[in-house]
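#data-curation
PF: Archiving a pair of folding outputs for the training set. Convention for this channel: one message per protein, sequence first, structure tokens after, nothing in between. First:
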Amino acid sequence: MSEPDPKSVQDMTAVVQTLLQQMQDKFQTMSDQIIGRIDEMSTRIDDLEKNIADLMTQAGVEEGEGGETKPTEGSAQGAD
């Protein structure tokens, strides 16, 4: 059995290295996009939580322990 041609081994090595580099670049791009979307989602959730808290304050409701809501003192609820 003859040994492989050194030129063909070099060519194959170059092709494999190129493919691996392309895959790494694509994975890095995808990773950056995912992280960007997670950061954006986090910001939107923070804004949503703030807006909900503001609405609850305007409605005269505060959040108690365990996530239950109750009227704040001096609110219009139950003032009949």
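PF: Second:
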Amino acid sequence: MASSGGPMPVLPTEKAVAHTSFWVGTNVMVLFPGWPGNYSLLHYYLALLLVFVLALLTPICGMCSMPANEQMAPMTLLLYAMRHGLRKCLFYLVVLSVVTFNVGVFLAAIAGHVIGYFALSTCMLYHHCTTTDTKV
């Protein structure tokens, strides 16, 4: 193949820094190359919100345990397997976000997990209490 004769692509002048300890700053890459990057504080807060929501949804996706039924339909098993896969996918996305070692991302992930677990526990406790009250 002949060369097109166009200019060669320009390499970025900034080197990517891989932090090995926790650090505070807004120039972080979360999940996608160049995002949120060096844009604005709003992009950084949107990245924190994304990590928070991913961490919030992780415990909620696993809120119902699979019933111990020997006669389960294959479609029901497939749905439980898909929900389990979604939960693990969300969890690994949170883990990949935390690997940036950014303190803000870490705190957003922890807050999402804590609030998600609290909401799940409250819902399960409330549901359990109302079902026992109606049986008595």
